[in-house]
Amino acid sequence: MQTWIKANPEINVVVISLDYAHGGASAFYKQKQIDLPLNMGKQRETMALGVRGLPTTIVVDADGNISQRHAGDLNWDDARVSQMVLGWLR
User: Fold this and answer.
1) Which of 1, 41, 52, 70 has the fewest CB neighbours in a 10 Å radius?
2) What CATH code is carried by the domain that includes residue 21?
């Protein structure tokens, strides 16, 4: 996903971790060499957004409305996945 985000800088992406502690999420970022901002979320708030499993991708339109939700892994290196996600933004 990190590569996809950097290849599509015109898209605003916010990655949210639901780890209980910042230290655990920070260690995961370091282990996986993730160079993105670490944002911590709360499970109750994400459940209100319809998150029922991890990972979940949520697309929010310019008016702040959820336009798409995808539960499960996405292969962000796959061109078809990239086109699908970019299509959600149209």
Assistant:
1) 52
2) 3.40.30.10
